[in-house]
Amino acid sequence: MSFDGNIVRKLTKEFNDQLNTGRINKIYQLSKYDLLFNINSHQGKSQLYISCSPSYSRINISTLVYEKPSNPPTFCMFLRKHLEGGIIEEIKQVENDRIIEFRINKRNELGDKQDKYFIVEVMGRHSNLIITDDSYKILESIKHTMPFDNADRTIYPGAIYKYPSSDKINPYDIEKRTEFLSNIDNINQLTIQNSFQGFSPLIAKEIMYRFETDKQEINTIFQTILNEDNPSLYFGNKDIFYYTNLHNNQSEYKTYTSVSELIDRYYLDRDKIDIIKQRSKDIIKFINNSISRLKSKIEKLRKEIKKADKRESTRRKGEFIQNNLHLLSKGDNSFTCLDYYDNQEITISLDPLLNPIQNSEKYFKKYKKLKASIPHINIQINEAKLELDYFVELLHQVENASLKDIEEIKNELEDKKYIKNHSKQKRKNNKPNYLTFVLNNGIEVLVGKNNVQNEHITHKLAKHNEVWFHVKDAPGSHVLVRKQFPLDEETIRSAANIAAYFSKLRKSGTVPVDYLEKRYIKKIPGKINSFVTYTNNKTIYIDPDEDFILSLNKK
């Protein structure tokens, strides 16, 4: 894993530089395992993001914008009681382990200053957040570990907090490290990994690669790597991040100014997607079921069309019976005659309970029914296609939604009677949660992320001469530049980049984006919500740039 003791060491230094002596102004619990501390220090206002998620555990100074719940959970209330308003007096890493300890000083109810320890264990599925008093007696933790769960450590209110035991060498203890390495005859990746504290397979592999490539003394390579500071994100089948360059990795990479910035970038979508998936799994299931149902319906209707296409042969059979009445009698099961249209013999089935005239009328009635059904079937197919387009678009919107967006989509489905509204509370008529970016030239750009937001932006906010952007022939956001046509090239490229990024073609190479004045947009009759048609458009081709999107100011 990337998040090892060496990453934690670099982060601890960043925290000491930016957060030490800072005041904890506010604590938020964003989800079950995710916390956000607002801290005001000599460096200004900062956000400390902490997660003990089994999948995305981490800690870093974050510059991202987070949706803060209005009702704090019990653990959050406990932290607020004991830590809010407190001053961070000390930040330290425990040895080279994935543990960071914050000593926080705060006045109690009597006005006396008291130290509390807030301990963050970033250990994958074993991650935990623990608060203790000044004698390390545990006051509370986000996860409880009882004696029968772990023989070595009990994490539970009232127990004394103990660091995890380790017999590994701290690699930053130069004397012990040097002694160990000098006594190893045949060093390998596994030996390094198992002997040094906080060493992931990532750094063990890198050390061995440089040792075999550079032909330097192993201790020298250790010292070089441990002192490096070049946070890098490698892009491949599986993205990898580390606090320094990995010479053994030949993938494309990007460097960042700090490990915190690197972690922000790496987890930008990963954790959000995980949280949103939990909240939206029922909606996603409903949408996928609706898509499957509509595809099956369309296929079934198309089969009926194929059946109806045989109506001419049905009419001919009625005609052939009529022309051969003199040869037929009631009780006949079939008869054979010449099909003078194709100049070949044809055998026609008959109902023995009907006389020849009645059999002829039966085929003519079937012909008329098939003929009359085609327009109705085509209408049903078109309606099903429109509904299918709606749900395909909706699925794209859910997959790229924030928590507030999910709520808007849920409300939309309730309003359209697709799902039941089980809440008895009257829904607040809140403003749609669309994004507002401010470009470097000060121009505002509005971005809708679902049908409700797109409808609001395009048909309620947009003025006739303002410029509208949308990815060509694919699901995507309505993007509105709040400036009259024409636009300068920089603004066009910026808005096109936004439209490409907030579309289904985000991961593609070059993306075509249409842009035009709002006056040329019309709603499509029969289409649901924000589906539109337009004319007088121009097209620009753009490569979606995520870093550009992240650099934009949000209003």
Question: Mind explaining what this structure looks like?
Answer:
- By secondary structure, this protein is of the alpha+beta class.
- The chain has four domains: 137 residues, ibrinogen binding protein from staphylococcus aureus fold (Roll); 97 residues, no CATH class; 112 residues, no CATH class; 120 residues, no CATH class.
- The chain has 14 helices and 23 strands.
- A hairpin with a 5-residue loop joins strand 5 and strand 6.
Concise structural overview:
With 555 residues, the chain is an alpha+beta fold. The chain is built from 14 helices and 23 strands.
Which regions are unreliable across 5 or more consecutive residues at pLDDT < 50? none
Number of separate strands: 23
CATH homologous superfamily assignment of the largest domain: ibrinogen binding protein from staphylococcus aureus domain
**Nearest-angstrom radius of gyration?**
34 Å
The percent range for helix content is: 25-40%
> Which oligomerization state do the chains in this entry correspond to?
single chain
